[in-house]
Amino acid sequence: MSTAPPFGLILPSRPVLTNPVVVSPTQYAFTFPSAPAFTHIVAFLLPNTTLPDGTLAGVYVQLPGASEFKLIGAIGTEKQSAIFGVSGSGTAIPGGNGSVEDEMTDVDDTSTTINGTTTVGDVTVGISIEPAATISSQVEVLKAMQASSSTAIVAAKGQQGPTPLSTKVLAQRIIQNAFNFLASFAGNTGPGGQEVIPLKSFQDWWSKFERRIANDPTFLERDADG
């Protein structure tokens, strides 16, 4: 991979950004004003650029005043660009049912725009080259949270019910569900003696999770056992 920054960023009605701050050889940061308002970000690999084998580039966003970055998706050598919908809270808009590198291709235009009194300032988009398995697992959890939230919203329309779970509790239960499932695959060891879980296990968990959400949309509200 070239030593030059390999990524570019596009925001609607703004110039293309191709000169990020190089935080480290694998981490890059684009910083830009939150105004004018936007709801979508396009991240892409520059021409003639490839990532190292076995890696993906995680795309993260940090809104004005926020102390942490939130993952919104990923790009890679096989899928060199993607459109990400971003809400005013810094979370990815639900959309898309494809692979790790496809999951944010279809986006929803009903997001909260990133401007206004609560988000005035600079937005930072960080792009980090990481092992594909690491990004894949994080994206699967992100997709699971989106699927669960979308299903809960649809189920709640036109009827009253208990107070929805907080994002933190929902995330904890999804992660616990994934951990319980993946724990059965533990035992294989890789370099350094650390346990390694096959990527296919994450895909199997996601398929099982999707089926359960479809059959029982409220199961996460009752327990985290899965």
UniProtKB/TrEMBL annotation:
Hikeshi-like N-terminal domain span: 10-145
Signal peptide: none
One Pfam family in the UniProt entry: Hikeshi-like_C
Residue ranges occupied by any Hikeshi-like C-terminal domain in the UniProt entry: 166-222
Sequence similarity: Belongs to the OPI10 family.
Name of the molecule in the record: Hikeshi-like domain-containing protein
Lineage per the UniProt record: Eukaryota, Fungi, Dikarya, Ascomycota, Pezizomycotina
